[in-house]
Design goal:
By secondary structure, the chain is mainly beta. Helices cover 4% and strands 45% of the residues. Bound molecules: beta-D-mannopyranose.
Amino acid sequence: MSNIKILGECLKNIPWEDKPAGCKAPVWRFSQNPIINRNPLPDVTRIFNSAVISHNGGFIGVFRGEQRNGIPHIYLGMSNNALDWQFDPKKIQFTDKNGEPFMPPYAYDPRLVKVGDIYYIIWCQDSFGPTIGIAETTDFRTFTRIDNPFLPYNRNAVLFPRKINGNYVMLSRPCDDGHTAFGDIFLSESPDMEFWGHHRHVMGRSGNWWESLKIGGGAAPIETDKGWLIFYHGVVNTCNGYVYSIGVAILDTDEPSRVLHRCENYILTPEEWYEERGFVPNVCFPCATLTDADTGRIAIYYGCADSYVSIAFTTVQEIYDYILAHDKLQPGDDAVGVR
Ligand code: BMA
């Protein structure tokens, strides 16, 4: 067994529960799941697929809120313990670089990543089809929209939490304008968050049935001394529809389009009522983690059945050992990913 360390900040108040006695899985669910229930706000019927981050000794998050007209937008939430959330009842109002109001027709599956002193929100929005939207903030009061990084169609963009070789790096998943029946994870780089290029294939759907239809980025990569640890989603098509599970892999630190290790098993799949039953059944969809470098604890935030938010726990050592015990790279995973 080789030791692994998170390279990041300490977070003494990370939400946590010890692994239940007898649990054999590398990841275990919070006993009080789901932490966000239906009808969290008068005009929002469901919050799910949302991202949180530590902020000023507490926590702040961007939440996918389904309005009563069925259209998703992004809402801000605050918490002292990362479990009980108070939401701003009004969706986030963005402005463009000229200070003019900007509101995408819809916005969903937000991620929230701090790079340097700036917090970036990345989401899926309409721009003549689904593609990626980005905004930046330093104070969570004003949110300045940056031009869309990619052409349609694209979803599941996830920013790395620091520049690599001088560039911002973003994972994304090119798609179609429907319930895409394919999809691999790609990576793009930018010197300035405006112009993106150096596109690379990172990893594809695999022969493992749980991720045989498509995969997509989940939480922002966690930097470790063994590479970037990613929690992503993998989808299988069944005779009863799509099933979304959570997978894990480790990407090379300096060349993250190379996959170093990839777990052939999912680490979480719909099993509990709040994952199997809801607006879209059988969905576990990770969008964020909180981590504590001191203890190696990881709290995974994931959307459940397009209806709730839940948390699951692991440690960096436990998940690393599990990946190594079930390590199975797919053809091309260890390549740079250019054709
Ligand atoms: C995907 C995204 C997610 C959603 C999932 C299951 O295409 O739209 O927001 O959780 O489908 O419905």
